């Protein structure tokens, strides 16, 4: 895993452009804050993926060294359940990391504050709470 300061995806330092006084949209400071939120979430998620991967590798290694028969072992169902829980947590963490990558791309492209469905604006408070969201509140509540 790359060091956070040297990571190629680091956005905060790349968003220092000037904004004309009459321009609409987020200010450079708002863009920088959004980039920092995405960077922080991404770094935390990378640590989570690494930790879950180590746990998964340990479970796999332990299961190869033990003669576990999940079907007939009274503890087998617990082992299988824990393995499934860990697998699903790792899958979700990787998916979240991909979502953060898409959010970073939307920010770079200037589309971060624009709803992908209706083209309306996404409030900054919503993006602060859910940095990966790509829809406004109205569209988020509608079925795909």
TrEMBL record:
Q: What stretch or stretches form a coiled coil here?
A: 83-110
| Segments forming domain Zinc finger DksA/TraR C4-type | 112-142
- Pfam families, per the entry: zf-dskA_traR
UniProt keyword Transmembrane, yes or no: no
Q: Where is the composition biased (Basic and acidic residues)?
A: 16-40
Q: Per UniProt, which keywords does this protein have? A: Coiled coil, Metal-binding, Zinc, Zinc-finger
Q: Which GO terms describe its molecular function?
A: zinc ion binding
Ranges where the record places region Disordered? 14-40
Instruction: Please state the residue ranges covered by dksA C4-type zinc fingers.
Output: 115-139
| Alphabetized PANTHER family for the sequence | GENERAL STRESS PROTEIN 16O (PTHR33823:SF4), RNA POLYMERASE-BINDING TRANSCRIPTION FACTOR DKSA-RELATED (PTHR33823)
What is the name of this protein? Answer: TraR/DksA family transcriptional regulator
Which species is listed as the source? Streptomyces bathyalis
